[in-house]
Amino acid sequence: MELSLLNAFIAVFIAIAFVGANAAYLVWWERKGAGFFQRRPGPTENGPWGLLQPPLDGIKLMTKQLLIPGGVDKAIFMVAPVLAMFPALVSFVTIPFSSSIQAHTIEVGVLLIFAFAALGSMSLLVAGWSSRNKYAMISSIRAVSQTVAYEIPLLITTITVVLIAGSLELSEIAAAQMGGIWNWYIWPFQKSAGFNIFMPISFMIMFICSVAETNRAPFDLGEAESELVAGFHTEYSSMGFGLFFMGEYANIVIGACLITILFLGGWACPFGDLGFFPFTHHVGWFLLKLYLIIFVFVWIRWTFPRTTIYGLLNLSWQYMIPLSLFNLLLTAALIKVFA
Amino acid sequence: MSAELVLSGVLFFGLVVLLPLIMLATAFLGPRAQSAAKNEPYESGIKPMVGRADQKFSVKFYLLAILFLIFDIETVFMLPWAVSLRELGLSGFIEMSVFILLLFTGLIYVLSKGVLNWR
Amino acid sequence: MADLLALLPLIVTTAAAIVVMLVAGFSLFGREVMALLTTGLFMFCFFVQAATLVSMPFFPYQQTFGSMLAVSPFSGVAGLIILACGGFSALASQTYFGHNKGYVPEFYAMLLFAACGMLLLTMAAELITLFIALEIMSLAVYVLVGADRERLLRAEAVLKYLMLGAFSGGFFVMGAMFVYGGLGTTSFAGISRVLAESGLFTSPLATAGFLLILICFLFKIAAVPFHAWVVDVYDGAPLPVTGFMATAVKTAVFCALVNLLLTDGSLLSVWRDILWYLCVVTLFTGNLIALGQTNIKRMLAASGIVHSGYLLIAIISADVTGASRTVIGFYLAAYALATLGIFSALSTLSGNDEKRISFADFNGLAKVHPYSAAMITVFLLSMAGIPPTAGFMAKFYIITAAFSAGQLVLGVLGLISTILSIYYYVRLIAAMYFTTPEDDFAITGLALAPAGTAVLAVAVFGFSLYPLGW
Is the ipTM of this complex over 0.95? Predict the structure, then answer.
């Protein structure tokens, strides 16, 4: 597909629409999921199964007052929500949904996603700092130290996968896992990984870190509502809050996409190359895996109680980082031995 | 060229136009009432009495930030190494192992000094 | 592999530093054992360095690691001096922390890390490597100066040193950038080659860059006009650290400066005139500051400025042959012996919280501790350049080198400065011998510094007999 200006804009609009639709309906999905785990129906009033709830929520947020309390740092205060949403949008450009559906192939796609993820944690800090609210301040310090702590094992585990695939390009990493479920990097004894037995542990680290990076329960110390009101976006109303909310869900989608591509083969069909089956390697598989992972995120959120901030930070610095570093070195050594 | 085009397109629409527009839409659609109560920081309806927003916080977070910086730089060094490990030969592996072990020793030292001991 | 063998002393020192850091982190050993361990490690590194120096077939400027580092006999000797300084400072700090507060176990790890940076500095053959080495050294020394946060004097010293040191580091990086922009290379050999072909002043960028680099070096060796920090910082630092800074840091930085200037001499020929004036000003300003001091530490700091001046004489009158480097190496070694000796002795005698530190505090020391007084006298005479000490031979070689290079005026000014400096050195000797004691000069606890002091006192005489082939 030749990339022209028109194509680029279409790709951008599709990315934004995808993010927007996902963010909106993931809220519905989360509320329905919460209802399911708590044996209640969830939203039902608007539309069949409450399906009209997200657009109506959007309209409600739009028509509320965007309140800027006295004493806040106005410019930074207004920039923070945009900064929360923006990196998630940009990251979608690099994500390959199938071998042909990708806004643009970028050779350092992994690096780009992590760079923008770091920008996202900036928005937390800026929002809490500019709000001039004790709760927002405490929350942003917590949230940033948490994202920062979990970014390292996440990156190191990603580097382990990059090591095995030998590429920083997401579509190449996914393409290296084609040909059946047994070729996915989640399983131990991959030949390309030097028969590393610890690949499932890598996957677990990646999964836990993704939950922590997106500030979701049980790691939602940043917005622990019983202690910190609403966390760093306490002072935000209307679409300011809305953008934070959408950004959060967009980040969840990005995290799930990364896990899908790095460990679950991206758009690969689990049964290998079936010549007679038309949907062998299809975007459908990608979306299936993506929403399965998001379902697990929701499941975890409504099942586990919240941890403490100390336990959370210590988990990363004392266990996750040494473990992921060890795994990286082991993988490198095994690749050296067997390749 | 095309990569820059796509990225700048997203940057333009995402950052410069669309997101601020969504935020500013509320300024036209929503009410514009102001009152003294709306001007205060939100503390569950109670007047702020204890502490300030710009109060001091634990120096441990600062230490963690420095620690993060070191390890983040480490991973930046590891990325190009990971891509070209197969071409680098044994010396490439040994050199990176030494680098990682050195930084890991630093982490052990930090843990031994009780930076993560929060009590 | 040959590269790694040439770097073996540095690798061993780094490993030792990491081991000591971990030992300090887990508080495995007490204060005394840490000092002994560090001294032992420094001795081991010293022997590794000596073995490497002797066993390797040396050519001038053997390039290693793609000409990032260059190992030469000069860098090897400088490394030996640095490691010896580290060992004696560790020994002195054992005694010093026996009667002074502010001990942290990481002190010894920092000593070793600083030595790592210095060893790297002596071998750097390229501006960026030089900067990294400079910063490794400087960061460790900042910590050494200011580890005792409770005392105001230390805080002041470390603040001054850190701020100005950071600025000088910034100047260096900026200068390296300009040089790279102007000449297209950062390696010493490349710089010399380009300068020999086209001359310095064809590139204004490089001219500015070299000026900035010169500023950084002048700051680190405490030459006038960048000397203002040195008295306060030396005064504020703990005594063993002052000794370490005065000797090891100076050795390392001078070694780097010589490596930069004397690669083939084309850079020196440009800088010679600037350095000439700076050298004269350094000699006499240093003397002037030292004359007015009543505090021994401050006097020694100011005399350190003067000694930098002598070393600048040696650099100005140097040519590219090995003989000039030998003269500089000899002076650095002789100066290190005497300075370490006196700081080692002071570490023992200064008492609780450095209470005995001015000239008057040492009144009549010879009556109470005749051997200590005698050894201090030996060190002071060596610094003043009285025969038959090593300091005399070092000054003799430098002045002779200046005369034979045609720098007559500089040589004479150096002699005048030597005569001036005798006053403030002899003042302390007079105080020790010709007054009655008011103090009992009690020394408490296990003290190893006197042993080091005795070794150094013997070495001051022994080293003067070292034949300098020229």
Answer: no
